[in-house]
Amino acid sequence: MSSVERQLDDLQAEIEDEVPSGISISDVTYEGPELVVYTRDPKEFASDGDLVRRLASQLRKRISVRPDPDVLSHPREAEGTVRDIIPDDAGVTDLDFHTDTGEIFIEAEKPGMVIGRHGSTLREITQEVGWTPEVVRTPPIESSTVSNVRNFLKQERDERRDILERVGRQIHREEMSDDEWVRITTLGCCREVGRASFIISTPETRILVDCGDKPGAEGEVPYLQVPEALGAGANTIDAVVLTHAHLDHSALIPLLFKYGYDGPIYCTEPTRDLMGLLTLDYLDVASKEGRSPPYESRQVREAIKHAVPIEYGDVTDIAPDVKLTMHNAGHILGSAVSHFHIGDGLYNVAFSGDIHYDDTRLFNGAVNEFPRVETLVMESTYGGRNDYQTDQEDSERRLKKVINEAYERDGKVVIPAFAVGRSQEIMLVLEEAMREGDIPEMPVHLDGMIWEATAIHTTYPEYLRDDLRDRIFHDDENPFLAEQFNHIDGGEEERQEVADGEPCIVLSTSGMVTGGPIMSWLHHFGPDPDNRLVFVGYQAQGTLGRRIQNGWDEIPMNDSRRSGNLTLNMDVETVDGFSGHADRQGLENFVKTMNPRPERVLCVHGDESSVQDFSSALYHEYNMRTFAPKNLETFRFT
User: Fold this and answer.
1) What is the largest CA-CA distance in the chain?
2) Of 158, 183, 206, which marks where a domain is finished?
3) Is residue 163 in a domain?
């Protein structure tokens, strides 16, 4: 008998000792980080609302309780009872019964009403029908991504359960080494922006954190071939942790499966969905530009199938000697500061991912409260000594001024924006400005993936700023449903109609002008000096956006419809303050207000001067050990 089997037998015996005598335990197994308990008495189990919490606390594990399939009532009988229990106002849109696990997946417009106060309605469902309810939100804006991901995971649930059981056994395997050390190896994004990737190694475990591309630099990928990463084989990696879905962190996650990786991807639920959206678009853009994509769509599906969603604040075992906790990073939907507790109190490392320290219209500011952090791996995108952004109110005033000036000249405004994060932030500013009369009402056209990304935001309002979440819960106040917003879905023909029409605002991908529909808008709007091009996000070195910012007015147009150069006569403006990244002051405040502060900080994800400036400032201000590492450096701790 393996050590995991003995462990499960011991856990089953411990649970049987703890539960009331009338409750039987038919099986106990691992699914990923969760302990799944099967019982022939689900109704009795549910009658004690505190029993699962007590067991989880005693065993120090995440626990799910499911009915033994042998005792389930027929789905047709159960469905009527379930619908009678759930209030009509919950807006149930789908019930899906999984007879192999005894779970009912309930999709509803208002999940809170299905859950009930402290889970009371869920317990009532189990008490009445025995099935275990799981609740998901019906997107207020229809999202093909969310629908496709949910349907795919339903179709693949048997294989997914096999994956999770295998992962669970790997997590809870017996530790084999008495050595104690922790190492971090940098595989990318050091003294550069993009291709974020790191390896955390212990005597037991190897964890890959992020795996992204480098904007504007085709072919520059993380150093995955080195022995610390995939050089010794893809399955020497125990787990992958994805901080957020932007392509400079996520683009090459599916490539791992091409190389033979078959393990878990830990991320938040919205990050999983957005990763699917952005990586599939990444393949599509490569194909349209005549480049060979590094992987295929089936590897994107593998990444989604292997994703293990984690909620903010949940402490999760991901290896025998590593616990992971994710916290809001304030950067984009689902972005996470990832905290690793290694060993039995041996060492703690936090990866900031990308952060925004202060509240924005979309998100609460980044969390920096941890019990312990000895080493912080910290983004430094705006870490330079002069990288101070204007505050949000000034930025919004400036944007409204630019729009009003263009409108008075009968011109149009085009804003290159990332589909995820900045677009939704700008949408909120424009919706309020028109509602309050600060700018004239006019169409706001959303091109590229912006509408789909917005739909995903409305699917997960619990990840948004508190007051925005409350507005989305009420359909008549949902700002993303304002009538000014128009999804461009008619391609080039519709773009031509917009170009020939009245003054308007266009939000379009790509945010760094590295391809995509923004090139079409530059073709339509660029020659007219009454129009405005407004940058509201970071433009990385080497991108066309950075070159236009720096004064280029002859730009290459090399796509399937156009070639040659385009002369830009339109005004070019940069409105700082809308970036999803903290500026220099925000980065310093993140570190300054940590209590206790880390012993050392690795400054990464910034241009060379930015990381060196930031590293030096932290050293002099707070007397901590700081580093501005190069790629392929390894740091040993303990």
Assistant:
1) 81
2) 158
3) no
